[in-house]
Amino acid sequence: MIRKEWVVPLALLLVGVASSIAALRLGLGSVHRPGVGFLPFLVGVSLSLIALYSLIIDIAAASKKEGKEKFFGPFLVRVVLVVCCLGLYVVLLPVAGYLLSTFLLFLFLFKTAGVRRWSSALAASLLTTCASYLLFGYWLGIRFPKGFPGL
């Protein structure tokens, strides 16, 4: 029986394996000239290993204590909402641009994670979005989609 503690590690393991396979199709390149899929492959393998470690720890802990918890419930609803929100983010990113899409994503994630006050969620979302833009857009020079606002 699948326990609710196993859902996230299993999902991350699946995402890690899928991204590693997709990265292999892009081509890893060589040690001196890495290909486009090199970094995504490393990230996918790392994610898979971390998820596998977490899953093993959770299974070991579950074998020590046998509690009867239901799999379906608020936890599963939140997981499904977050996955749907990430899918919407991918669709919204080229249309609305990086700043607006990322701000809305983090706002939703903070509210889903349990931040009670809207002012706290808004401030944390704004801070996280600005920090990520400064790090990746300004310092590392990565170009993000501007979207319709032109931001």
Give your account of this protein's structure.
The chain is flat. With 151 residues, it is mainly α. The protein starts with a helix and ends in a 12-residue tail after the last helix. It has helices spanning 4-26, 38-64, 74-96, 98-113, 118-139. The chain has five helices and no strands. It folds into two domains: 1-69; 72-151, no CATH class. Helix 3 runs antiparallel to helix 4 and helix 4 (98-113) packs across helix 5.
Layout of helices and strands:
Elements: H1 4-26, H2 38-64, H3 74-96, H4 98-113, H5 118-139
Helix pairs in contact: 1-2, 3-4, 4-5
Q: What is the string of helix and strand elements?
A: HHHHH
* Overall tally of structural domains: 2
What fraction, in percent, of the residue positions are helical?
Answer: over 70%
Distance N to C terminus:
48 Å
Structural class: mainly alpha
Task: Determine the mean pLDDT.
Answer: 83
In one word, what is the shape?
flat
Task: Please tag this protein with its features.
single chain; 151 residues; mainly alpha; 2 domains; 74% helix; flat
Provide a short characterization of the protein structure:
The chain is mainly α and 151 residues long.
